[in-house]
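Page 47, continued from p. 46.
Same chain as before, 159 aa.
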Amino acid sequence: MAKNILVAVFSASGVTKQVGEEIARISGGDFFQIVPKAPYTADDLNWMNKRSRSSVEMNDPSARPEIANRVADMAAYDTVIVGFPIWWGVAPRIIETFLESYDFSGKTILPFCTSGGSGVGRSDTELHKNVRGNVNWEKGIQMNRPDRAVIQKWLETVR
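Result:
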């Protein structure tokens, strides 16, 4: 595993954040939480309501929710581990915003997701189109809890 690791996560419920924090501890990486400029409310996240903010965003491929914060020095990292919950079978649109906001040339990107029902699905490859530069993509993994043994094994396979 590279020495300069950033673990960047978007977490709506806190589950993805917990997993990401454990990945950062185990890998020795820095932790960065992707924070939406307009925080999501419970009503925004109601996937049963077709007019909820998350439903509207996910039904619009061009939607790019604004991010409130920025990685101070993305150039300092060799590996970026990107974590997100699965929404509608893919990563939330804010992950696309994050990936389009930086130059990832020469970096390795490792995606992971959390999900109550589905795995990484097509989000693993769909996100590739949002990244500039020559990037080494590793296969994504689903992790729904901060299981140290699972995380260590995963990190060892991507060295």
